[in-house]
Amino acid sequence: MLLLLTILLLPLTQATCEWANQVPLLSDNYPTAISPDFMKYVEKVGKLFDVPGLSLGVVRKGHEAQFFNWGQRDEDGNSPTECTMYPMASASKNFASTSFGILMDDFKHGRNVTPLPYGVELDWETKLVDLLQDEWGLKDPYTSGHVKVIDLLSHVTGLPRHEFSYDLDTPLPHLVSQLQYLRPTHELRETFEYINLMYSVITRVIGKYSNMSYTSFVESRIFTRLGMTSTTFHPERAWQSRDWVQLWVREAGPYYNQTRVVPWYLEERAVDGPVSGPGGVVSNTKDMATYLGILLNGGIHPDTGEQLIPRAVLDSVMLGRVVEEGRASYPELAPTLYGAGWQSTGYQGHEIVQHGGGARGISTALLFLPNDGVGVVALCNGNNQHPALFALVFRIIEESLGLKRIDWISRCAGSLGYETREPNICQVEGSTLGVTVRASTVYPAATFTAATILGTGATLGTTRFHREYGAFIKSFRHLCQPRL
Ligand SMILES: *[C@@H]1O[C@H](CO)[C@@H](O)[C@H](O)[C@H]1NC(C)=O
Ligand SMILES: *[C@@H]1O[C@H](CO)[C@@H](O)[C@H](O)[C@H]1NC(C)=O
């Protein structure tokens, strides 16, 4: 799903105030409620795309949220509801970037007195070497000395994913100390390269300067304050609630064509480990609807009027900085920019702020239209189900804003199994997030050298060099299609 494209950096000053100056369409054009007929469409998508279960939440500014659920949440055939807990995968990243912004705001207003290194301020532009000091080091000396917090969060460090250099149990300090062995593929800020690892690094920074664990900071400063009472980083809490999804993959078995339930990619013991930042949030559509409602309201609670997240923080994390996809794949869409844990794009002329997530057995999408007062959360307990989620999300936007109907079912069905069913494409599945990626595009052979992996020592595990992929693979299951 991620394409590595050439870079185009936006001057930050140019766009900072635009958001605030845009006239919202809300005053004379309220979004329309989703009709009950929509369930027929959901059912059609669910069946066609072979979806196990789905939970959708639709938020319209100034109205009660609407929820739609379909299919099954577990093998017993129980239905999901708006309370059913799902792991959010990468839709967790905006909580890491937003919590850094909140910490920054705490320092600026004297709410945090944890000592900072002499002469150092905590800001988006602060260099990692100043914040992590002796702990910090990258292979390329220039990048090491110049990379800023915002570079980490916008995926422009020049490092590729290096997904196999760590696992669920790698302690954060160890992960940070081993970064120096990971080979870059580009120069700093040369191009967009998605890397989960840097969202682990930011949690180390937040933990260090908030004087509490990353997950405690986010729980107290975001989940609790915003009234997201079920949302947590602790999978155990979801499992105890008894209302949680089992996860399915469709690529199990010797021919990669069997559907099976798989364990969650999160483990209780790994809370505050490498995965909490990039993909650790567990939530339901009810809480995410609350969150979207507050985001649509500029960080202000719709009932109490309290500013729960500083507006400047939201403006910073949602501001597109890097071109992620320089061309839209359909004429109704727009190119995609990456901010900090949020992407921005457009649909039929309406700006969308979004982030999707995918890990073993789970597909998620979290998005809102800041100028139109509409937000959508779409969660599915199946692997690689983004085509189904797109078909649903676009229909919701069309209905809400009275836009032209596009046949997204046909379009998305055309890309069904894009990542898994294409013949002659060999894939590897990472042990850490269970993310399925193409070896050929995401892991250029150059990023894997003996020094890269051997240098990391403790993470060797069952790593071996796989000649066919030109990559070091750690405890992976390779998904090579039978040749047709
Ligand atoms: C950090 O927290 C501990 C207790 O958890 C406290 O004793 C200490 O004073 C705090 N340090 C700072 C700098 O706030
Ligand atoms: C999977 O593929 C194999 C080999 O083509 C076939 O024999 C088997 O029936 C398939 N299983 C399913 C569940 O489709």
Describe this structure in words.
The protein has 484 residues and is α+β, with helices and mostly antiparallel strands. It has three domains: 12-90 and 236-414, Beta-lactamase; 95-216, Beta-lactamase; 429-480, no CATH class. 31% of the residues lie in helices and 17% in strands. It has 18 helices and 17 strands. The chain has an eight-stranded antiparallel β-sheet with strand order 2-1-12-11-10-9-8-7, sandwiched between helices. A three-stranded antiparallel β-sheet has the order 14-13-17. A two-stranded antiparallel ribbon has the order 3-6. Strand 1 (53-60) and strand 2 form a beta hairpin. Helix 4 runs parallel beside helix 9 and helix 4 (93-108) crosses helix 10 (214-226). The structure holds 2-acetamido-2-deoxy-beta-D-glucopyranose (NAG) (2 copies). One 2-acetamido-2-deoxy-beta-D-glucopyranose binds next to loops. One 2-acetamido-2-deoxy-beta-D-glucopyranose is lined by residues 113-114, 211.
